Every structure is written in structure tokens, then in C-alpha cells.
């Protein structure tokens, strides 16, 4: 354990993110006040607005001016006003609990603010003063509370799909390279027919495809040579294709020659469009397109001369539509400008407003304004949930935005996750019409209340957001913005009456987690010009959010903004890894001059920004990256004396920040951005050090358990878009157990266990039934096979499955214990032990070889304590080390094995090798990514090859937190911080110096307060300063030969106040300490 004493570090990892209130150090409480109560939280949040109706859970922190202080009792009061107890009083409760304390009063009322406070008694019987008041406020709790509010949108916004049944489509096009496809009867980009002219073979063909839920099949191939076409002739000239779509038959005429008649009944209606794919150099140009309905009506007629693109992709150039790369350019409602909605209203005359709240939600995403000013600071509301089951509502305090007398409220809508592209680039997963629902409650000082709700009295118009898609980007035409549209006095006579859509009010639930907000702003550090008029800016950090640009242009001109995570060798953007996501914003100038543009309804993952179409290059100060993410409180820091390790902690943190955006995603940049269950299952222990995940992961777990299959298994992604990854496998669906368990261990939060326990049991029963009577689980898998993205070092499926089976049983036993289910806990505990014995018998040879001989197999066997025979542990360890030696102690593990790699080495006393692997800078290693310029974690170890070439383009994210799971080991061993009991009620402080480190430090704002360590190792002297929160105890491990070699505060440690010697263990003296700050020193004679 002791390792090499050489280094130190502490890195503040989440600059710009909201930070938990810093608790008073135990020695810093006000003089004469031995116990103080502070940092009150409700449902793990500070003064939340708009919570749900479930009994809230309270928490608080304590400060004391003496060491080893503990709480003996508490009293909570809840009232309708500050200092009141007219709703509920707990009375004096003899308990040391200060987290996970449930409200016990009458049911909460809708739209109501509650104040609460707490006082505590310490172990000496002294009582604190009452805390300062905190509050929480309920949202609209029941569907009936929304009475009078309708879901509204712009008239005509509902789908035009019914008009697109039988039609004739005539398109003039040029085949520029490879192949060019055209959609027919495509209701969206994941379904429909696609006829492709292809010149990649010796003879030209018309390839007829059918796409169902994103999967293409070739239904027919027509050789075009007999009709007089050659590859050369098809590439040389413009051509005219006509499709006659009638009933179940599609007739295709190319340059006047009927080349195909095809009959199929799969799709009865759908739009036209165009398609290319980057893999084969496909490229085409559309010069004009005319579509006439069977009744003679014109459905589409464009020659692109106006510069406006009626399709969802492609670029307008020289009065034509250029389609290249991986592009699905579909006509349809996706290209209609996004709606604006407004309502003029007046406050009641002669009355003074006491408070005003807006309760709102949307199908899609929305932003509100009152009297020209933004409402709230969150973005992309209402966030992503399984909209089939629940849609979140938000509560806003708008008191200060109201005028006396005339007012106006406005709303901008966009497709968001509701109707925009989700997952693998498929749009309209939930619906095709963005809509708003809202109620405003204005309370007056005389006790009266006025309500304003969305209904037929609202007005609607098309707005400046011509296109808005989370994956593809935003097009903002400033010419279309009505000046003053959300202000009182605006003339909306030309606006239409808002239309109503089907109500989803029954699905509304108040938002329970932190919203997505701006958390930081980065400024460009460098500008290059890889081509004339093309300006590329480097922010110096891969991030997630949008750009904020000050641009100069002329009226009607379009500025084009593209993004990338990395650059090609020639300095241009590398975007192939974005796959079908366009990741492009456009701004159309209304007037000539300078403007500042910041997209509102898209989201990108990027480090580099490319700007074209402007009169002059913006200055560096005019190019900013606005960081977005779920605004979780920062809790942990880690610093070392090694700059590479500090950068690694930063990379892990930035990947967490970028992928915690409404849900925990896998990657924020390409056409995926899904809630992969395996990624967060593996990363959750690290995330719980970096930020307070309680509300965020509890919110997401609601959708996880709602998505559970009838057999107890889970999909691979949550929320689950239709037809995308509905099945799962080992290490992924286990999230049903792992995430609630890790949240409970980190925060002492039993509510997440109570909420999920029935679903956890159902999932475990599914796993149990998958295993045989021999207790070996064969590695249930569908989409996933093996240790995801390992480097040619596969692990036996049975090893993976049985290892998780044993671990799940262990976690279920602890969960059942925590919830008082003693019978189930006993069953799970015995089963876990039995599975471990079965694992040893089946997969561990007498010489210590784990079946399959993979790094991950050994890491799981040791890291999960699966070797039931103690005599075999050493042999397995020897085989593990020998396996690592074959690669020069470089890792070959994938997603599943990597989190366990270093813990397994620590388990066998080889912290020295753990540091060796951690500190490598050559391929493959964590340091290699940093040497290659990475500022976030990569999806693959070989996202950039040693020769500088990029990894496989189909799956190559540069912002993917899975391999950042090493942060858990770093916080425990470099920072020295780990929990012995849930919520760090008892903690372990045991830094393990190693490698070249001479100093290290870690801090963690636990639910009880600040837990920290700071150590140095110089000239054979080891110094360790620790801080332990009030009402907790810690075991402190000080590397030393004897306890007598350790001092605390200049005196023998075992005689210091608040310190008790426990034992010698693995070359360290172990002491128990209560709350306070302690300074331990071990001298040279301790070695």
C-alpha cells in the first residue's frame, strides 16, 4: 500500500459550475457558538421552486468550534412564513441523522411556498440556535391544477403528411460523384423509400431501397445500361427524373425513359428528399424540384433562386441545392419556421402584486419572455424524459418582470427532443408539432389571485428560428424577428389565433432536478484561416453548449458557423465523426452592420468554431463558447504534483459536464447523444466525487424503471427512441442496480433505493433466471458483446455475466439491509457468496489463470473479490501481473474492465504498478490522450492513432466519459477519500503516495460537510492534514512503521484530542478521529 513517496496535487475541477455552499470549518464557527446549523437542503437542492407533491426530504450541515462533535437530536419546523411552525413540527427527535430526513406533515398544496428551519443538540446536550430559514415551493401537482390551460401552437403547424399520398415529383439534378439518392413517401428520415442512382460499379444502376426504423434494405437493382446510360454519361450532364407515386406503385422515368415500375405497400404517404453518405464520396446537386398532388395541387415548387432551402439538409449555392457527406435532406414540417406565441394582459387595477409565478412546459423546447425580458435562466426546457410517460413542468418567479397595468408574455418554440432528431438522426420520435402549455399565477397583497393561461386568446406567428434542431443546428433569420413582439403595446393584429393540439396535461410532473443552464463562458485563444474567408477559432477546451459571436455582415447575407472537436492536419474542421449530424448554425443579417448571435435551440460538442460568410474575421474577444449542462453543484477537487494527472482530472470533469445535459449521455457531438445505461453505470462512482448527482440521477432513474421490460430487463438507452437499442447486455442493464446503489453509498439517500427497489428486484430476478443451476450467468447479451471497445483482448462472456451476477447480489443484499428487508438481504448475501464460489470453480484454474486470460477477466476477479479461495488470490494476482507485463504494463481493457484495473492492482498490494499504468504517456494510456491534445476523455483508446490518423469514423467521439471512471481510484488513492458508511457518516482517509508524486490533496463536500486531505512527502517526512465534518468520524491511515512515529499537532498522535489509535495495517498507523482539522506527521524513523 505504501508505494513510493514522491508527489502532491489538488485541482479544482469544475470552474464555472454552481458550487455547494462552503461549510464552516469545525474550528471556524462563531466564537461562543459551539454548534451551528447551516446549508439547509430540500430534496438535495437549495430553496427549490416547483417541487412535486411527494413528502420532501430535508438535510443540513453542522459547524462546531470543538473537535469530535456529534449530533444527538434535532427539531424541524415548517410553516407558511419565516420562523413559523403552523404546518408541521417534528418535535425534538433523538437522532444523529441530518440527511435523508423526511417531512412528516400534512400533504403539500399546489403552488405554495413553505418555509422551514432546524436546530440541533450536540453530544454534550448543548442546543444550537435555530438555523436561518430555508424554503421550498411546490409546482402544480395535479392535472386538475392545469385546468384552463390548453396546449397551443401556430395554426397550420400540424403535419402536412396527409397531403403527400399520391403525387408526381420531377427533379432536375446533377450526379457529381458516386451516388445520389432520393426519398419518396418518407414520413421522416428513418422511414420511407430511397431510390439511388449509383455509378460506383462497372455499370450504372438504380438501386431501390426501403428504410424501416432506420434500417435500409435493397429491394431491387435496375441495370441502367440497357436504357442507354453509362457511368460517364450520368456524371457528365444534368438529368431529369420523374416519380409517379400512385397507390402501391412507383414508376420511375429517367431522362424520358421508363426504367422502373415497383409495387410495395409499406408506406402510403411521405415526403420527397435527397440523400448522400460520406463513406463512398456520394455527392449530388439539385437544380429544381416540382411536386404535384393527384388533385393537381402544387405540393412543392422550388428552384432555390430565393436562397431559401425547403429541405432539412444540404447547402444552397449558385441557385441550387448541394448535397454531400452524410446528409438526409427531407422536405416537410421540419423546415417550417418555429412558432412564436404571445398574449397581452393587464394586472388588476389598483392592486399591488405580491408575487407572480409562471408554470410552463412544452412539446419540444421553449423559451419565455415577459415584457421583452427573458424568463428564467435555464435552456432547453423542459428537458428530455420519456415523453410517452411524463413531461416535466417548470416554475419561474416572474414577480420582478411584471409592470403595473399592461404586460405581455411571449414564447418561442422549437422541435427539441420531441420532434427534432434524436439518437441516430431520426426525427419526430414523439410527435411533429411543438406546443406550449402555461399558467401564470399573479398573487396580490390583498390576497386575491389572477390566472393567465394558454388558450385560444393567444396569438401566433412564424418567428426568426427558421430551423432548429439539437443535432443539425439552428438557422436564425433576423429579418423575420418582429421587433418588440413580447412587449406590451405590440401590434399583433396580423398574427393568427393560436391553435390547440391534443392535451398531454395528464403526463405533466414538476421538474425534480437541476435544469440545463449556462455554467461558464470560454473565450477564443487563437484564430487561423485555412482557406480564403474561412476563419477557424480555437477555444482551447472541448466543451458542450453553443457559441456567442459578434459578427459583421450585410443585409440578407448568411453567416455560416460550423463546429468540430478536432482539426484535420491542414487546419480544417474534422467532422466525419459527427456522422449524420450537421452541427451547423446560420445567421441571416437583417441589416448591414454588427450583431451578436447566440443560438438558443440547438446544442453542440466542440472546441473549434469555423465562421464563413462574414465581411471580416471576428476578433478573438468576439468569439466565445457558452458552456451548457445540467447545473449540478460541484463537490470534489483533486490536485497532484503531476501536471498530466491534473489535466486528466480536468478531462474527466469536462466530459462529465458535457454529458450531463438533462440526461447522462454518451457523447454530445455526433448523431447519438443517448442515455447509454452502461456508460453511467460504470462512471457513477467517479461522477459522485465531482458533482452532487442525487437529483440528476434520481430523476433519470425514473425513466429507467419506467422503461423496464416485462421480463425485468432494460433497454440499452434511456429514454429509448423507437427502434433504437431496445435490448441490452451485461454491464448495461445492470444500471438498474448499480446507479441507485452508488447514489445511496455516496449520499446516504435511501429514497432512491425505496423508489427503485421493486424494479431492482425484478431486474435481479431476470438475471437470476438467466443463470443456470450452477450459478453461472452466461453473459446475457444482444446488442453488446464482450468488454466494449477493448483492444484485442476479449473476455469470456460467462466471466462477465457471472461477475456481474455476484456483484449485483452483493449490492442487492446491502440495499435490502438499508431498507429493512432482512429476509431478502439474507438471501442475496448467501447467493452472492455462492456465486463467488461458483465463479472460482468454473473460471479460476489452480495456477491462478482466469478463463480467457484477459486483463478485464483478472481485473474483475480481483476488483470484485470473486476469488473465493484465499489461497488462490495471490496466484491470480501473479497471473494478472504477468498478463500486464506482456504489454509493458499498458492497458487493453474496454468500458467494463477499465474501472476495475487499478483497484485490482491495489487489492493485491501493487499500487506501484497502478501508478505505472496511470502515469504512462504512450499508447495506449490515459496520458496518451493528453499528449495528443485531448481536453476531454475519448471514446476509444485509439481515437487518434500514434501516426496521427483518426480512429474508425463510425464511432469516434472525443468527449466520452467512460474511461474517466479511473477517477474513482484517483480520488480514493491520491485524494485518499472513501466512504466506510453511506453518506460518509464514517469515512476512510488513506492517501497512497506513488509514482513520482510528492504531494496530493483531495476535497469532497459530502452531505455532512467538507471532508479533505492534503499530504506531502519530502525528505522522508510524510505530512497529512485532514478535515472531517461535524457528526462524522474517519479512519485516518498514516504511512508509518509504528504508531509512536506519528504526531498530531506536535504531540504523539494517540494522545491528541479527538484522536484514537486503532491498529497497524499495511504499513500504516490507523487512527480514528472525530470532526475537526488534524495535522499528522510521520518522520524518517517510521520507514
From TrEMBL:
One Pfam short name: Bac_rhamnosid_N
Stretches assigned to the Alpha-L-rhamnosidase six-hairpin glycosidase domain: 634-974
Keywords: Glycosidase, Hydrolase
Reaction(s) the record says it catalyses: Hydrolysis of terminal non-reducing alpha-L-rhamnose residues in alpha-L-rhamnosides
UniProt cross-references to Gene3D superfamilies, sorted A to Z: 1.50.10.10, Exo-inulinase, domain 1, Galactose-binding domain-like, Immunoglobulins, Maltose phosphorylase, domain 3
Domain Alpha-L-rhamnosidase concanavalin-like: 531-627
Domain Alpha-L-rhamnosidase C-terminal: 976-1049
GO MF annotations in UniProt: alpha-L-rhamnosidase activity
Signal peptide residues on this chain, from the entry's feature table: none
Transmembrane region(s): none
Protein name listed in UniProt: alpha-L-rhamnosidase
Amino acid at each position: 500500500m505504501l508505494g513510493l513517496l514522491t508527489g502532491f496535487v489538488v485541482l479544482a475541477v469544475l470552474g464555472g459550475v454552481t458550487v455547494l455552499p462552503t461549510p464552516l470549518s469545525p474550528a471556524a464557527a462563531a466564537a461562543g457558538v459551539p454548534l451551528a446549523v447551516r446549508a439547509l437542503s430540500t430534496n438535495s437542492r437549495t430553496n427549490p421552486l416547483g417541487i412535486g407533491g411527494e413528502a420532501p426530504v430535508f438535510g443540513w450541515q453542522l459547524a462546531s468550534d470543538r473537535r469530535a462533535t456529534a449530533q444527538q437530536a434535532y427539531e424541524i419546523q415548517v410553516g407558511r412564513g419565516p420562523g413559523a411552525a403552523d404546518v408541521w413540527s417534528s418535535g425534538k427527535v433523538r437522532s444523529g441523522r441530518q440527511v435523508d430526513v423526511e417531512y412528516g406533515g400534512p400533504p403539500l398544496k399546489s403552488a405554495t411556498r413553505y418555509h422551514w428551519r432546524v436546530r440541533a443538540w450536540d453530544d454534550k446536550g448543548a442546543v444550537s440556535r435555530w438555523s436561518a430559514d430555508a424554503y421550498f415551493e411546490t409546482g402544480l401537482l395535479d392535472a386538475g391544477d392545469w385546468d384552463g390551460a390548453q396546449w397551443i401552437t401556430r395554426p397550420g403547424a400540424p403535419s402536412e403528411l396527409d397531403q403527400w399520398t399520391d403525387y408526381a415529383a420531377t427533379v432536375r439534378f446533377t450526379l457529381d460523384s458516386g451516388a445520389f439518392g432520393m426519398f419518396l413517401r418518407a414520413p421522416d428520415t428513418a422511414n420511407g423509400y430511397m431510390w439511388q442512382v449509383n455509378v460506383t460499379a462497372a455499370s450504372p444502376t438504380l438501386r431501390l431501397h426501403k428504410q424501416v426504423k432506420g434500417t435500409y434494405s435493397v429491394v431491387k437493382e435496375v441495370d441502367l445500361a440497357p436504357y442507354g446510360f453509362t457511368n460517364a454519361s450520368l456524371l457528365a450532364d444534368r438529368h431529369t427524373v420523374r416519380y409517379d407515386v400512385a397507390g402501391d406503385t412507383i414508376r420511375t422515368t429517367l431522362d424520358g425513359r421508363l426504367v422502373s415500375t415497383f409495387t410495395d405497400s409499406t408506406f402510403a404517404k411521405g415526403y420527397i428528399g435527397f440523400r448522400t453518405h460520406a463513406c463512398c464520396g456520394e455527392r449530388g446537386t439539385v437544380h429544381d424540384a416540382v411536386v404535384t398532388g393527384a388533385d393537381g395541387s402544387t405540393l412543392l415548387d422550388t428552384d432555390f433562386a430565393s436562397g431559401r432551402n425547403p429541405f432539412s439538409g444540404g447547402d444552397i449555392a449558385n441557385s441550387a441545392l448541394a448535397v454531400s457527406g452524410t446528409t438526409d435532406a427531407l422536405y416537410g414540417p421540419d423546415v417550417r419556421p418555429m412558432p412564436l406565441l404571445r398574449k397581452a394582459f393587464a394586472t388588476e387595477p389598483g392592486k399591488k402584486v405580491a408575487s407572480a409565478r409562471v408554470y410552463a412546459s412544452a412539446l419540444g423546447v421553449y423559451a419565455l419572455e415577459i415584457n421583452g425580458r427573458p424568463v428564467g435562466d435555464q435552456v432547453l426546457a423542459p428537458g428530455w424524459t420519456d415523453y410517452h410517460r411524463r413531461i416535466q413542468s417548470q416554475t419561474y418567479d416572474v414577480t420582478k418582470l411584471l409592470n403595473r397595468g399592461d404586460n405581455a408574455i411571449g414564447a418561442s418554440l422549437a422541435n427539441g427532443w420531441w420532434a427534432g432528431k434524436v439518437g441516430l438522426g431520426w426525427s419526430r420520435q414523439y410527435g411533429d408539432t411543438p406546443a406550449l402549455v402555461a399558467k401564470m399565477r399573479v398573487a396580490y397583497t390583498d390576497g386575491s389571485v389572477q390566472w393567465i393561461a394558454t388558450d385560444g386568446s393567444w396569438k401566433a406567428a412564424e418567428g426568426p428560428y427558421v430551423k432548429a434542431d439539437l443535432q443539425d443546428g439552428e438557422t436564425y433569420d433576423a429579418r423575420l424577428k418582429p421587433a418588440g413582439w413580447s412587449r406590451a403595446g405590440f401590434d399583433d393584429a396580423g398574427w393568427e389565433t393560436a391553435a390547440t393540439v391534443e392535451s398531454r396535461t395528464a403526463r405533466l410532473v414538476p421538474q425534480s432536478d437541476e435544469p440545463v443552464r449556462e455554467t461558464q463562458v470560454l473565450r477564443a485563444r487563437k484564430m487561423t484561416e485555412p482557406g480564403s474567408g474561412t476563419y477557424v477559432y480555437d477555444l482551447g477546451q472541448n466543451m458542450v453548449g453553443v457559441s456567442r459571436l459578434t459578427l459583421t455582415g450585410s443585409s440578407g447575407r448568411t453567416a455560416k458557423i460550423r463546429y468540430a472537436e478536432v482539426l484535420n492536419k491542414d487546419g480544417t474542421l474534422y467532422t466525419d465523426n459527427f456522422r449524420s449530424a450537421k452541427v451547423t448554425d446560420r445567421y441571416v443579417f437583417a441589416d448591414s452592420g454588427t450583431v451578436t448571435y447566440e443560438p438558443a435551440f440547438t446544442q453542440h460538442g466542440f472546441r473549434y468554431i469555423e465562421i464563413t460568410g462574414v465581411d471580416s474575421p471576428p476578433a478573438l474577444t468576439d468569439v466565445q463558447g457558452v458552456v451548457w449542462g445540467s447545473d449540478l453543484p460541484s463537490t470534489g477537487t483533486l490536485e497532484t504534483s503531476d501536471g498530466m494527472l491534473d489535466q486528466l482530472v480536468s478531462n474527466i470533469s469536462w466530459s462529465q459536464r458535457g454529458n450531463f445535459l438533462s440526461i447522462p449521455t454518451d457523447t454530445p457531438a455526433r448523431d447519438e447523444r443517448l442515455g447509454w445505461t452502461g456508460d453511467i453505470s460504470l462512471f457513477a462512482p467517479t461522477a459522485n466525487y465531482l458533482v452532487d448527482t442525487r437529483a440528476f440521477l434520481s430523476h433519470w432513474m425514473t425513466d429507467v424503471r419506467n422503461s423496464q421490460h416485462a421480463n425485468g430487463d432494460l433497454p440499452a438507452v434511456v429514454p429509448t427512441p423507437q427502434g433504437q437499442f431496445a435490448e441490452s447486455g451485461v454491464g448495461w442493464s445492470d444500471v438498474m442496480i448499480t446507479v441507485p446503489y452508488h447514489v445511496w453509498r455516496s449520499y446516504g439517500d435511501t429514497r432512491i433505493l425505496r423508489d427503485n427497489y421493486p424494479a431492482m428486484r425484478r431486474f435481479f430476478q431476470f438475471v437470476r433466471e438467466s443463470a443456470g443451476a450452477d450459478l453461472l450467468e452466461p453473459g446475457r447479451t444482444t446488442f453488446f458483446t464482450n468488454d466494449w471497445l477493448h483492444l484485442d483482448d476479449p473476455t469470456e462472456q460467462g466471466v462477465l455475466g457471472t461477475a456481474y451476477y455476484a456483484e449485483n447480489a452483493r449490492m442487492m443484499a446491502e440495499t435490502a439491509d438499508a431498507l429493512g428487508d432482512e429476509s431478502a438481504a439474507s438471501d442475496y448475501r448467501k447467493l452472492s457468496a455462492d456465486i463467488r464460489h461458483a465463479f472460482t470453480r468454473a473460471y479460476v484454474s489452480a495456477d491462478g489463470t482466469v478463463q480467457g486470460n484477459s486483463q478485464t477477466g483478472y481485473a474483475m476477479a480481483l476488483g470484485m473479490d470473486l476469488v473465493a479461495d484465499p489461497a488462490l488470490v495471490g496466484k491470480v494476482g501473479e497471473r494478472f501481473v504477468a498478463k500486464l507485463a506482456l504489454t509493458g504494463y499498458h492497458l487493453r481493457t474496454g468500458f467494463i474492465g477499465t474501472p476495475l484495473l487499478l483497484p485490482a492492482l491495489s487489492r493485491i498490494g501493487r499500487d506501484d504498478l497502478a501508478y505505472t499504468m496511470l502515469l504512462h504517456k504512450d499508447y495506449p494510456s490515459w496520458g496518451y490522450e493528453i499528449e495528443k491534445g485531448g481536453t476531454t476523455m475519448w471514446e476509444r483508446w485509439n481515437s487518434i492513432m500514434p501516426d496521427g490518423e483518426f480512429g474508425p469514423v463510425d464511432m469516434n467521439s472525443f468527449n466520452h466519459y467512460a474511461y474517466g471512471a479511473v477517477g474513482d481510484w484517483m480520488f480514493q488513492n491520491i485524494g485518499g477519500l472513501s466512504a466506510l458508511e453511506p453518506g460518509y457518516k464514517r469515512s476512510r482517509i488513506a492517501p497512497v503516495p506513488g509514482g513520482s508524486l510528492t504531494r496530493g490533496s483531495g476535497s469532497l463536500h459530502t452531505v455532512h460537510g467538507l471532508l479533505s486531505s492534503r499530504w506531502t512527502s519530502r525528505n522522508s517526512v510524510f505530512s497529512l492534514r485532514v478535515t472531517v465534518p461535524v457528526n462524522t468520524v474517519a479512519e485516518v491511515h498514516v504511512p508509518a512503521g509504528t504508531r509512536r512515529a506519528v504526531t498530531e499537532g506536535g504531540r504523539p498522535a494517540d494522545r491528541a484530542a479527538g484522536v484514537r489509535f486503532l491498529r497497524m495495517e499495511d504499513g500504516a498507523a490507523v487512527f480514528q478521529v472525530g470532526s475537526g482539522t488534524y495535522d499528522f506527521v510521520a518522520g524518517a524513523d517510521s520507514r
